[in-house]
Write a structure and sequence with these properties.
This protein is of the alpha/beta class and about 400 residues long. The protein has three domains: about 1-60, no CATH class; about 75-265, Rossmann fold (3-Layer(aba) Sandwich); about 270-380, no CATH class. About 55% of the residues lie in helices and about 5% in strands. It contains 20 helices and six strands. It has helices at about 1-10, 10-25, 30-45, 50-75, 110-125, 125-130, 150-160, 170-175, 180-195, 220-235, 255-260, 270-280, 285-290, 290-300, 305-320, 325-330, 335-340, 340-355, 360-365, 370-380, and strands at about 95-100, 140-145, 165-170, 200, 240-245, 260-265. The chain has a six-stranded mixed beta sheet with strand order 1-3-4-5-2-6, with helices on both faces. Helix 18 packs across helix 20. The longest helix has 26 residues, at about 50-75. The radius of gyration is 25 Å and the shape is globular. The chain binds adenosine-5'-triphosphate (ATP) and magnesium ion. Adenosine-5'-triphosphate binds near residues 148, 150, 304 and 308.
């Protein structure tokens, strides 16, 4: 095929360059860093100057990303955990700590996931009763589901319920180490967690598999997976090993099988979205009570993480009085509206009109559907919106 011929014609460096460009353009920092690390190793002998330049970019991206993580996630520094392992080359912390022992609101989850999580916690709390019968508590679980549904949050919640901090092993950091010591790094981090009876989360465990496509790394990948298999097998009853992934299909089946429990997180349903909106509105719930139905309808299909972000924007706008409530609501469901087809938007407008809470002018502002069109489908507008000032 013509496409293959073109690719074959490219030299090795050009191919790597094109690959790097593709990843950088896809906005995936983690993948870009993994590839950078690989290229540094690959070119260290052959093209030392190029390798040094790439290494600089990699180190800069690591510093930035660690800084961002701290800012974005509000992680407390690992107080009292001064000896957490770091990668020898980059001094990059391999383990991040979330300490939620002061309390954390329970994640909003469907009953079956809630029950499974409750069981993990209860087994840990009553492990001596189990031990009296020669039974171990669940030692490991893998949390699977789309982005932003609360996998990491649930891991934090489990740890907080057990009155422990959550340690998160940064697999990207483990795998970015440059001298083929990733296996050692991984083992050091896991050993550290084991000896401390920690609740350890291997976040984005599929990162272990992402290298499979690159043949030069197959040997190293195999070593890593072997380390993981042994570790999961030998995880002590005193610790709890959690893993999370958006890409179950990338996780090695042999590894997959070794987890005691698989927790499946689905995209949130309508009830979960409505509950999340109320929670995220916080003390502004009263102000926005008349629009709860609009918000819930407009945010169907979003992840709870997206819902949270939109609601926070809405609240900021409300406090600073940047626009009318209708405009703010429209903005909050705006992201979703772009992905709504015309027909779906019309459907939303008609539902709102039939509910009779809002005037057609308001509905038109919120949904972007013309007033005439709303009237044609839903009859005349109520004289004025009820339920809000
Ligand atoms: N089920 C939930 N209940 C309450 N809040 C949630 C829930 N899911 C997500 N959130 C909010 O969104 C934020 C991000 O969620 P979280 O990091 O747990 O998602 P995730 O499933 O781990 O996503 P990813 O696969 O992208 O890592 C949480 O900190 C929380 O504020
Ligand atoms: Mg997560």
């Amino acid at each position: 095929m013509a496409k293959d011929v073109v690719v074959d014609d490219l030299g090795e460096v050009e191919k790597d360059f094109a690959n790097l460009a593709r990843l950088a353009a896809s906005d995936s920092l983690e993948d870009t860093r993994l590839l950078l690390a690989r290229l540094v190793r690959k070119y260290r002998q052959q093209r030392p100057e190029l390798a040094a330049l790439l290494d600089q970019s990699l180190k800069a991206s690591q510093t930035r990303s660690v800084g961002n993580n701290v800012l974005r996630r509000g992680i407390s520094p690992p107080a009292g955990e001064a000896n957490l392992p770091v990668d020898g080359d980059s001094r990059l912390a391999l383990i991040r700590v979330f300490d939620d022992r002061k309390g954390l609101a329970a994640p909003i989850l469907p009953p079956n996931v809630q029950d499974a999580i409750g069981a993990i916690i209860r087994e840990r709390k009553e492990s001596s009763r189990l031990a009296a019968h020669g039974i171990s508590p669940t030692r490991s679980a893998i949390l699977v589901g789309p982005p932003g549904v609360g996998k990491t949050l649930s891991a934090r919640w489990i740890a907080s319920a057990l009155d422990k901090p959550l340690w998160v092993l940064d697999l990207t950091a483990v795998m970015s180490s440059l001298l083929g010591k990733t296996g050692n790094n991984l083992r050091a981090a896991l050993d550290h967690a084991k000896t401390h009876g920690a609740v350890l989360l291997l976040d984005e465990i599929d990162a272990l598999a992402k290298r499979r496509s690159d043949e030069s790394d197959i040997g190293e990948l195999k070593r890593l997976v072997t380390v993981m298999l042994q570790e999961v097998d030998q995880w002590p009853d005193s610790g709890l090993l959690l893993a999370a992934t958006n890409h179950p299909e990338l996780v090695d089946p042999a590894l997959w099988r070794r987890f005691d429990l698989v927790l499946k997180f689905d995209a949130p349903d309508a009830a979960a979205i409505a509950m999340a909106i109320e929670r995220f509105l916080g003390e502004d719930l009263k102000v926005f009570a008349p629009w709860l139905d609009v918000l819930a309808a407009g945010m169907q299909g979003q992840s709870l993480s997206d819902v949270e972000r939109s609601i926070n924007t809405l609240r900021r706008g409300h406090v600073l009085q940047t626009a009318s409530a209708e405009k703010l609501i429209s903005g909050a469901i705006g992201q979703r509206q772009e992905s709504l087809s015309k027909a779906e938007r019309l459907q939303l407008a008609i539902e709102l009109a039939k509910a009779g809470q809002h005037t057609h002018v308001q509905i038109s502002q919120m949904t972007g559907v013309a007033r005439d069109t709303i009237r044609k489908h839903a009859g005349p507008s109520p004289r004025q919106g009820r339920g809000h000032k």
